[in-house]
Amino acid sequence: MLEKLELDDDAAEPESDIYMRFMKSHKCYDIVPTSSKLVVFDTALQVKKAFFALVANGVRAAPLWDTEKQSFVGMLTITDFIIILHRYYKSPLVQIYELEEHKLETWREVYLQATFKPLVNISPDASLFDAVYTLIKNKIHRLPVIDPVTGNALYILTHKRILKFLQLFMCEMPKPAFMKQTLGELGIGTYNDIAFIHPDTPIIKALNIFVERRVSALPVVDESGKVVDIYSKFDVINLAAEKTYNNLDITVTQALKHRSQYFEGVMKCHKMETMETIVDRIVKAEVHRLVVVDDLSSIEGIVSLSDILQALVLSPADACKEENLTE
After folding, report:
1. Measured between alpha carbons, how far is 118 from 73 in angstroms, rounded to an integer?
2. CA 19, CA 191: separation in Å to the nearest integer?
3. Of 292, 297, 299, 265, which Cα lies nearest the Cα of 278?
4. What are 49-78's pLDDT values in tens digits?
5. How far are the Cα atoms of 46, 96, 169, 189 from residue 43, in angstroms, in the given order?
6. What is the largest CA-CA distance in the chain?
7. Pairing status of strand 227-232 against strand 217-221
8. What is the pTM of this model?
9. 3-class SS of residue 271
């Protein structure tokens, strides 16, 4: 894999753009597993059945196929489920008609109205750098790999998969200086106005925050300000799994009881830890973000996979562009 990347052995200091060059020298096809599950929904399918099918198949997203147009027109993700619940939930006594009766195509027409955007996708022959750029610049978390010749969807690329692939080869590459710098020094992550909830926050309020703040996880903070748990968008799909989405007045603590047996606790980090340590931890833990805490476990910020890929791959690319412009 690394033979594609020409390394300058004479360079005293590894170039800061080495990970960018690694990404540019590999194709999306290199990262597609030889065997994987891809679930596709027809837009004529009922919304509720589609969400149950996500749960039953253990997937977080599915491309949507429009039979009339004979093409993929969008993606169904857990965010759609959250938006439906946020928009139409009234009380435990009122059934959510839009969830029970609508088809995917109806929901898309109502929700998207005139803002139909073409499906963001990528070719298997495109570089991994293009994939990272597309994910981050479009602020999306799932990128379907679609064969331009056959029109077939092959795989759904995520930040997690890409960073794991990069980390596999990191030990064989020279280490850029910034990997030894701390989070604080590099200023990576979000540290202002962090959205969080409390153990007794009702689920409906957490869903409102997901939609209004456009975040993918909410740290759960106790009265003393200590981070005790985390409620992510992925946890919301459990409401469909347990068919409990008709009562969203229950607290976050009650809703999270289902995963207590195997939950290993909130994955945290400190501002004083190096980028190298952060990358290792987030990849090994297979999580989408780390909560940055102080010595008392109080929340300071959030570092996401997209923050990390931005720093490793895109920021060096921007720096190279600026250098070329000034030369």
Report:
1. 7
2. 25
3. 292
4. 999 899 899 888 999 999 999 999 999 999
5. 8, 20, 40, 37
6. 71
7. antiparallel
8. 0.88
9. coil
